[in-house]
Amino acid sequence: MLKLSQSDYVSLRQHGEETYPHECCGVLLGSFDDDGTRTVTRVAHCGNARKDSPHNRYHIDPKELIRVQREGRERGEDIVGFYHSHPDHPAAWSQTDLAEAHWLGCSYVITSVEKGKAAVTNSFELAGRDESDKKFVDEQTVIV
Ligand SMILES: [Zn+2]
């Protein structure tokens, strides 16, 4: 389960509208709770480093990711997930999304943006023991 505030939810959806028709991407910072819930306390918008195919691919520059991670640590926040948008495509993960997801136990949030308007937002947990058996599992998103 992924918990986030209304304003963080709006923030990640609006980011997809701002970058339309390109994909947006960013990091979810927060905490891992004992029951497996991830609680988001901050949404960090990142730039999409995929200049070759930004309408259907995303990539967070590793330097930017390290900076976001360090700033989070200073506030006592962990990286609990990532988000990106699917311009004019459903809010479902693709094989590329799975291949490029490496943070086991984190949430991957996808928002479909239809004609510039954020539509459906879904979240998936990257489950599995390691890279070889990783998989996306549907998870509930709760706005608190
Ligand atoms: Zn995707």
Description:
There is one protein chain. The mean pLDDT is 97. Helices cover 22% and strands 40% of the residues. The chain has three helices and eight strands; from the N terminus they run βαββαβαββββ. The chain is α/β, with parallel strands linked by helices and 144 residues long. The structure holds zinc ion. Zinc ion is lined by residues 84, 86, 94, 97, 110.
Topology (elements, then pairings):
Layout: E1 2-4, H1 6-19, E2 25-32, E3 38-46, H2 62-74, E4 78-87, H3 95-99, E5 107-114, E6 117-127, E7 135-139, E8 141-143
Bound molecules: zinc ion.
The site of zinc ion (ZN) has 5 residues, from strand 4.
The number of E-state strands comes to 8
The poorly predicted ranges are none
| Apparent shape | globular
> What is the helical fraction, as a range of percent?
10-25%
Rg of Cα set:
14 Å
Contiguous helical run count: 3
- Ligand species: zinc ion
* Secondary-structure class: alpha/beta
Average predicted local confidence, pLDDT? 97
The SSE string, one letter per element, is EHEEHEHEEEE
